[in-house]
Specification:
Shape: globular
Oligomer: single chain
Number of strands: 11
Distance between the termini: 10 Å
Largest sheet: 9 strands, antiparallel
Number of helices: 2
Strand content: 25-35%
Order of helices and strands: EEHEEEEEEHEEE
């Protein structure tokens, strides 16, 4: 059975992501449930760092200039970290990875899209920063590049980049 996909309709175009439900069932279910509920619709990318990543999923980012953007999570709270020994998925370019506060089991709704290989963020690499990968962009890499190239001030896009809708196909 194929993994589900998520289509992101953004103000700069569309991209599609395979969600690794087969390898990361807890994180995938959390993302899928939030997407199906409409949680991600009309939010904005609140942190864009060229040559690093694009961060998304904070409920406070409905207002793209909110000083609280990047500090919120889903209504149901956090999820447990998922570190399956049989799947050492690295934070390679175009992968989706769960954001967290730096503390264990603090992921929720925010995630980021790696634009370069950020292997030091892998849950299985040395160091304190642990971010499990749960998907990968399969179409629309050019849109990811457009978002990454957006002019920013303090990592926030000067011209807001909105995700109008996320549609899950299972």
């Amino acid at each position: 059975m194929a993994n589900p996909t998520a289509k992101f309709e953004t103000s700069l175009g569309e991209f599609t992501v395979e969600i690794y439900k087969d390898k990361m069932p807890i994180t995938a279910k959390n993302f899928i449930d939030l997407a199906k509920s409409g949680f991600y619709d009309n939010l904005h990318f609140h942190r864009v760092i060229n040559g690093f990543m694009l961060q998304f999923g904070c409920p406070h980012s409905k207002d793209p200039k909110s000083p609280r953007a990047g500090t919120g999570g889903p209504p149901h709270g956090t999820i447990p970290d998922e570190h399956p020994a049989e799947y050492k998925l690295s934070n390679e370019p175009l992968t989706l990875s769960m954001a967290n506060t730096g503390q264990p089991n603090s992921g929720g709704s925010q995630f980021f899209i790696n634009t370069v290989h950020n292997s030091y963020l892998d849950w299985f690499s040395p160091g304190g920063s642990k971010h499990p990968v749960f998907g990968k962009v399969t179409a629309g890499a050019d849109v990811i590049k457009k978002i990454e190239s957006t002019k920013t001030t303090r990592d926030n896009p000067d011209v807001p980049v909105q995700v109008k809708k996320v549609t899950i196909t299972e």
